[in-house]
Design a protein that fits this description.
Distance between the termini of chain A: 43 Å
Shape of chain A: elongated
Oligomer: homodimer
Largest interface: A-B, 48 and 48 residues
Strand order of the largest sheet of chain A: 12-22-21-14-15-16-17-13
Number of helices of chain A: 36
Number of strands of chain A: 31
Strand content of chain A: 15-25%
């Protein structure tokens, strides 16, 4: 430049770039350059850099010198292709596409066939030997340019097209004749001129400048801005612009277009997979007018091209080291590759491909582990709907427990139990579930409720059982009296068939075809590689021997959370629990507890047998007592009815006593009320009974040579003094019983104060388990049920929160307290065992955090164990990078 | 010692010690030594050190050499007093008392007259010329020694005494004759021997050894251990033992005993105040058989002694620089001082004395400020009960709003309003209050409820109004239907007189005499000294112009929290608010809000006029909307009644609509639900209306030349993005209205996540106000209402928590997050203004924390402003030490 500085270069020919230059050339440009350098047949072209885009945005005008570079490259393109831009003889046509450094799908459309006008269309007609074809190209170009570059609504063009079809009396655009198209083009031009105040640009150079500027501007269109904000993409990256010469697959039967995957993206099988369409352009495939043919058929039609495609596929997969999704066009028997990218694949395929590529030596195990998204594995672990059909979705709720289930609607738990036992597939549909519904849930294939959030009774129990469950389906109006459920115009009656999808929250009318999960050998091998890499232990949240067995099968290395309240809620025990609550003295309470003790002991004996040799963390009773009593409203109604029906005074008095006790247990905010260790401290008999049951069970299994390491966990501790008092009781009971073997006493860390005072707590507690469900509630001051029902949706759609913090551990907030709890805990006790047992223990991003923060293990629901194994391996690999 | 080390010394004569040796000699011993060194007439004696006690505890036996030292000192005592220990001629008698380094009242009783036995009693009789007197001394000694040293219940001795009185046919011990006493002593000895398995120790040396050991052991008696744990006193301090020769005030009319205060401990007036009893020992005063005479009368009876007492009082007050509470005994015309200590005083006296001592030049202002307990000032700011009579307390609740009030019981708010307006003094008694009861609360002198905690509606509103209030009175069973309230055997009916004491939670039957508060000139001057010292600003939590006026009178420098919800709850507005809630569209909601806007604007105009020139922090609407709707149960009952009484279908439908809306607003944990900024974000019209009202009011008062600095506060922020969106709205509305002057936009910090992410929040917010009520709830995971009703009492009595964290800011837990919020906030914005507006803003210990942590101001209820001013001054002084 005049001042002596070297002027920045804005344009790179494809030959000059490489895949490492994503920042400068964008993702698409870098890949086109890479393929060009590999000697693959890419239609020639060039890329305008992201820096040019940034300068354009800052200055509001084209950077000086940019256009000179563009024209220079265009001349080279003319030379290479033996064509001329704007000529009526062998005109050069180009496509113009955006390409940001990070993928931002749908941000900016493509402009194809740029360079067409009244003149050049004749050249194209001549070359194709088909005037109708050329005019149709021009018609499409005006419409695309008008929409993408000039912002005229596509609908405005489509209305003219529609009129033209009607006028011509044809159904499809393909049947429009040359004259129809001429008239149509004329109308398109009129529309353009009227809307824009100037005629459609005939000069191809004007077209190109306008298209480049449009791509630059598209970086700041509202949907791109929102997308970047949502994904945390910096605003100053800018987008590159790719200008590439057009190739035509629709110039005759020697041409065609298609997409090929280097392996089967559904099964992962190592064979070419894809479709092609003879004598066609990409658009024709999209339009769906002609049905593409399987790629294998191409072998017969154009064997040379097919062989070349096979070769290129192999080259690209080997070069990129991953399955590729390749777009190609064949022009007069010549194959062109238009794009390559890593192929999207089903979870089944992802696992198989990762596995196979290791055995083939293409990638190593670490790379294989990185390739599979842990979250996708859940599909492999639950039945799923074979072919999803959005149109039959009748209503949606919260995806409370993954997997799909079909069956007949049943509104009553007793009936669900009966019909389930008789072998019928039923879906239990309830306004919400309570401990009284457990037997119905056991009998049902899946559960659907109108109320509740992700942690309501139905959700927790269903996840524990591994049963599909959809809750909080607010638009499903259930009327138990009439035995119907309305959703929009549809009314479901008892016995109607439905299907629920607990991974998405969708409810379908009718029985959909389901696919059962298969744990393939590939999958097991793949997971064993994960086990070799990860340093985090993986445990399961399991309350019953059945859950524990599933968890062990899936690879759990222990139980990280056994919630004892479910033992209290089992049918047949609730009466004893209620008697305990109704007791008026410590002695009466002990009597009631004595009835529960042998049952709990049996539970633990069975659980310990199942988990032989592994640690089992048992949480003492956590929920508030009123959860074990009937609903207050229902009790009031019962009393009223008893009074009306002239029941005996004694019966009414008993019910009133129950009502009065239930009322006295009511709380304004039960989440923050008399529960956890607060219950254990104010009603010490309950915990003592539980601890006694645990140690008696230990003593019993030890007598049969079974060793187990129970970790007795005291919930909801906020101060070391709470813990100390209860831990003293635990150790006293252990001594009283004797011969119990080794055990640990620790606590759940689930309120902020426990994190803050963790050093003191760790001096007394032998392990910490972070209960991040409650911790998230208290750190945010969000009641999970209320938040998810009332404002979480708004927060997520408005971007106030990037993720639901109950699903993904909130690192900047909750995470800071967890980290300080870990650090303070370890400074109080060097060998403190630390884990997590909230729902986050099964979430890959949260598992990564747990790894980084130095926890010993994560614990999650049995059906998420494989996900956690993989996520823990990825976290370990991430740490090594 | 034999091994050459210098043996530790265990015993110090009073002449050898000083008041600086509290650690070694205990508080009492150090003071006795100090007075001895000052040359005051203290009966001679010596002190066994705390170190001896500690060695005794560790070794379980008397430290070697200790007794030798004791006997040595005893011989000196014999010499000084011209008496002999154990002699029947002028026997030396001593008292033995414990004395720890820190005051532990009631930990260990005193043993008087030690040295008496069958022999020495004769010498005493001879000396006194009164055998009956001497035998009575012996009788008392056996009883006291038997109880204090040997642990025999006092009741066992009292039963024998009772029988002896009955046998002798007399009513009072004083009328027992010599023979009666001899028989009694014999029975006492029998009791002792039977209980202890050995006879009563006749040898005075054995008596002394046993008494010393008993004092040593008393350090570890259960009540001392509990006391220390409760007050955080180290277990290894140990207690000293004071052995002092007895003097007798009851040897004739030339003797007597009494207590004198150097100033009036009730009024603070600078004159001797006290009582004396001629020919008596201290015990007689305690027994209450004879009525002591005012100290002034002594002037006539024994003028020389009185002058000496006056002189000594002056010397001691000047020496200690504080009002003294002095015990004295006159033995045959000779004055002995037995004890001196800083006098307990009423709050009125405390302020006056502190004030006067500064003007007298005895102490400086800083010392004066340190002398007054801020908490005590609340007595000076509210009416109080003149003479409290525990026997008339019928029931107790939570002390929700301080001060006493008398009046007639009224169960209905309308009636309370009517009768209050008619000039009658009434107490509103309700199960709990709701916004519908405001008018009744306005009309009543005080409020009493059966339900609710320290932050229930009644408590908050009453504190705001400065009205006495007792809530959560669980033992008061209110039956609105019959218009009665039962408490134990008492039934209160409409119109019965009661008195409530909102500082203690006591409820009295009948109208007690009340004393109105007087803000004396002493008090005002004293507080002005506090203002000169403190660095913390003091603001008030005030919602109405009336509150604001009270606050300004008390010295508030601004409003730190104006809760706008009370503006929504005022009668006449609730309808509009309910219409807003019932609205089905944004437009309907705006219409309803338009009706509220001018009313809110008027509120703000008045508030701004009152607070001219000062900052006013206005919190946008915080509570969940269902608080503005009728109770769900009541609505259901209403509908049922309407159905039964055949109301019109349209009316029922309307009620059902209200019910359905109220139901849809129900939450599991409203504390953690749709409130604060969550409400502001999901229903933006409400906040926009409020902000509009504020700015329109600003604009209006500015037109009248009134400047004000509003600080608009967004509640319950957990993430900066919540704040950003709402702050943008606030600034937009300010611009739309124009001419609003300066204002700040800031946030309340009341959930842990806000503390943790404070740096980011402070980059957008101009001030922080710590809402430590909610922060305490979320840090502990305690719902305040539920905790106080269900388990806080247990936690406090069992020492699981040292203080109720809702009353005293929990420094190790909540405080850590507050501190980190302050630090992170200031690193996000250097000049961030930081205050506190939770209840803790009025608690002295919490104010000290706020000072240390570097806040700019505290804000508290208007009636606690003087307390806060003093506490802030003390905090500043503490920081300078």
């Amino acid at each position: 430049m005049a001042d002596g500085t070297v002027r920045r270069r804005y344009v790179y020919r494809f030959e000059e770039g490489s895949r490492d230059q994503r920042d400068l050339l964008g993702g698409k440009g870098a890949n086109l350059a890479e393929m060009t350098r590999m000697g693959l047949p890419v239609p020639p072209g060039f890329t305008i850099t992201t820096e040019a885009s940034t300068e354009y945005r800052e200055a509001g005008e084209m950077p000086p010198g940019l256009l000179e570079e563009v024209w220079h490259c265009m001349r080279e393109l003319e030379h290479v292709r033996g064509r001329e831009f704007g000529s009526s003889n062998r005109p050069l046509l180009v496509s113009v596409r955006s390409g940001a450094p990070v993928s931002m799908p749908g941000m900016m459309d493509t402009v194809l066939n740029l360079g067409l006008n009244g003149e050049t269309v004749r050249g194209l007609a001549q070359e194709a030997g088909d005037e109708r074809f050329a005019l149709d190209c021009l018609r499409r170009f005006i419409q695309m340019f008008g929409n993408v570059v000039s912002g005229i609504a596509t609908g405005d063009f489509e209305r003219i097209l529609q009129r033209t079809r009607e006028h011509a009396g044809v159904e499809s655009d393909h049947h429009l004749g040359v004259e129809d198209l001429r008239a149509l083009i004329s109308e398109y031009r009129d529309l353009y001129a009227k809307r824009m105040g100037h005629p459609f640009p005939e000069d191809p150079r004007d077209q190109l400048i306008a298209a480049i500027e449009a791509v630059f501007r598209s970086w700041d269109n509202p949907r791109a801005v929102v997308y970047r904000r949502h994904h945390g993409i910096a605003d100053n990256l800018g987008t590159a612009v790719n200008v590439q010469s057009m190739v035509f697959g629709n110039l005759g039967d020697g041409g065609g277009t298609g997409v090929v995957f280097t392996r089967d993206p559904a099964s992962g099988e190592a064979r070419l997979y894809g479709e092609y369409l003879q004598n066609a352009q990409g658009e024709d495939v999209v339009a769906g007018i002609r049905t593409p043919r399987p790629i294998l058929e191409m072998k017969d039609v154009m064997p040379d091209v097919y062989r070349e495609l096979e070769r290129i596929s192999g080259v690209l997969e080997a070069h990129y080291g991953d399955v590729q999704d390749i777009e190609f066009t064949v022009e007069n028997g010549e194959l062109f590759v238009l794009q390559t990218r890593s192929a999207k694949r089903t979870p089944t395929a992802a696992v198989r491909i990762a596995h196979d590529m290791v055995t083939e030596g293409v990638i190593n195990r670490h790379e294989a582990l990185r390739r599979v998204n842990p979250e996708d594995l859940s599909i492999l672990l639950h039945p799923s709907i074979d072919v999803s059909d959005e149109e039959t979705v009748v209503v949606r709720g919260l995806p409370a427990s993954p997997g799909a289930a079909s069956g007949r609607v049943v509104f009553d738990s007793d009936e669900a139990e009966r019909r389930g036992a008789a072998g019928e597939r039923v879906i239990l549909v309830r306004p919400e579930t309570t401990p009284d519904d457990i037997h119905g849930m056991v009998g049902a294939q899946g559960i659907l409720t109108n109320r509740g959030g992700m942690t309501c009774h139905a959700a927790i129990v269903a996840r524990g059982m591994g049963k599909p469950c959809v809750v909080g389906c607010a638009d499903l109006h259930i009327d138990l009296a009439s035995g119907t459920a309305r959703a929009g115009s549809l009314t479901l009656r008892d016995g109607d068939a439905i299907t629920i999808e607990g991974s998405s929250g969708a409810v379908y009318a009718g029985e959909m075809d389901l696919v059962e999960p298969v744990l393939t050998e590939h999958f097991r091998t793949f997971l064993s590689w994960a086990d070799g890499v990860r340093t985090l232990g993986i445990r399961a949240n399991a309350d019953t021997p059945e859950d524990a067995r599933v968890a062990r099968d899936f690879g759990a290395e222990g139980i990280g959370l056994c919630r004892t309240e479910h033992m209290f809620m089992e049918p047949g025990r609730l009466e004893a629990v209620q008697a305990m609550i109704m007791a008026n003295s410590e002695e009466e309470r002990w009597n009631a507890l004595e009835a529960i003790l042998p049952l709990q002991r049996t539970d633990f004996v069975e659980l310990f047998r199942t988990m032989e040799g592994l640690p089992v963390t048992i949480r003492l009773l956590d929920p508030p007592l009123h959860e074990f009593l009937p609903d207050l409203w229902e009790l009031r109604e019962d009393i009223r009815k008893m009074q009306d029906s002239g029941a005996s005074r004694a019966d009414i008095a008993m019910k009133e006593e129950l009502y009065s006790r239930a009322q006295s247990l009511q709380e304004s905010n039960p989440m923050l009320g008399l529960r956890g260790c607060r219950l254990g401290l104010t009603r010490p008999e309950i915990y003592e009974m539980q601890v006694r049951a645990i140690f008696e069970a230990m003593s019993e299994v030890r007598a049969h040579g079974i060793e187990i390491l129970p970790e007795i966990m005291i919930p909801l501790v906020s101060d070391v003094r709470e813990f100390r008092e209860l831990a003293t009781m635990v150790r006293r009971v252990a001594e009283e019983i004797g011969n119990v073997g080794a055990y640990l006493v620790g606590t759940m860390i689930e309120v902020p104060r426990a994190c803050v005072t963790a050093e003191a707590i760790a001096q007394e507690a032998e392990f910490f388990s972070f209960g991040t469900n409650d911790l998230t509630q208290t750190v945010f001051g969000f009641s999970r049920d209320d938040a998810e029902a009332k404002f979480m949706h708004h927060y997520l759609t408005e971007g106030i929160l990037p993720d639901n913090p109950f699903a993904v551990l909130d690192e900047p907030g909750v995470g800071v307290l967890v980290r300080s709890g870990v650090e303070r805990g370890r400074s109080g006790r060097v060998d403190l065992k630390i884990g997590i047992c909230g729902e986050h223990g099964g979430d890959p991003r949260s598992i990564d955090f747990c790894h980084r923060v130095g926890m010993d293990y994560v614990s999650c629901s049995p059906y998420r164990i494989p996900i956690a194994r993989l996520a823990a391996a990825q976290a370990a690999l991430q740490g090594r990078d």
